[in-house]
Amino acid sequence: MAKIFTLCSLAILIPGLCQADEGLGNGADGASMPIRIGQADAVDDTLSIGQPHEGALAYGTPLRASDHLGVRQGRNFGTVELVGLIEAAAAKVSRDHSDTPKLYVGDLSLKHGGPMSPHVSHQSGLDADIGYYLKRGHVTDRLKSASLKTLDIPRTFTFMETLLESGDVQYVFSDKGIIKALRAYALDTVGLPAAKVSAWFGGQGKRAIVRHLKGHASHLHLRVKGSASKATLAQVK
Questions:
Q1: Which of 18, 81, 92, 178 could disulfide-link to 11, CB 3.0 to 4.6 Å?
Q2: Cα separation, 95 vs 9, whole angstroms
Q3: How many Cβ atoms from other residues are within 10 Å of residue 57's Cβ?
């Protein structure tokens, strides 16, 4: 079922949105008019609003604990795209690798988005901190640092490959040592084409989707594009 908003109701999530002088969705008398957001067959009933570092989330979808995932309750909301992609990737790992343990997922966003300490981003339902599969010392209740000795490269690569093949990923932040190991595995063991590996993991100066960022040895930071939300918001402009 389509969601019905007014600009003033969205202004609770985006300060300044409901302003009669902008003329966006307002009647001749300046009153806020209803805006229909989403269709019955829409991909995404959730709505990522604003930017990951200054935004909000309407109708956030919870990522739930399952046979494949452990989650951080209360900080586990995202868009349908984000939640579905994490669930699909974890399920793929379990199908392809027997006896796969649960993967622990840290923070996504709050139910309605907005600031969430200690993060700068994670405000609009597009971000998730996700642990690595470990062959030694794996835990299912917190994020834990990985090293080249403890990282389960086959499982982590399967998870990462599923994310990247979806076409929904804007980027992934990881650790340079982990990225290097996954890149080598993709080339030498899986045999992926060099051009695809470079586009994903870097090489020959190419700006990759998977990028190094300090502080990501304990988890990868996934950000999805939020295409469905962008298309929906375009309907009200």
A1: 18
A2: 43
A3: 28
Give the distance from CA 137 to its chain's centroid.
25
The dihedral through the CA atoms of 19, 20, 26, 29 has a sign that is: positive
Q: Distance (Å, rounded) from C-alpha 159 to C-alpha 94? A: 10
Average pLDDT on 123-141 reads 96
**DSSP for 70-92?**
E--TTS-EE-HHHHHHHHHHHHH
C-alpha pair distances (Å), 204 with each of 31, 185, 186: 56, 17, 16
- What letter represents residue 95's amino acid? R
The pLDDT assigned to 227 comes to 81
Instruction: Give the pLDDT confidence of 45-59 residue by residue, as tens digits.
Output: 688 999 999 999 998
Q: Taking the model in full, what pTM does it have?
A: 0.81
Collapsing DSSP to helix, strand or coil, 104 comes out as strand
SS3 for 187? helix
Is it the case that residue 24 has pLDDT exceeding 70? no
In this structure, the strands spanning 220-224 and 77-78 are: unpaired
**CB atoms < 10 A from the CB of 178, how many?**
22
Identify which of 235, 221, 231 has the alpha carbon closest to the alpha carbon of residue 78: 221
Note whether 146 and 132 are within 8 A (CB). Answer: yes
Q: Give the DSSP H or E segment for 132.
A: none
Return the number of other C-beta atoms located less than 10 Å from residue 161's C-beta: 21
What mean pLDDT, rounded, does the chain reach? 83
**Helix-strand-coil split of the chain, %, nearest 5:** 30, 20, 50
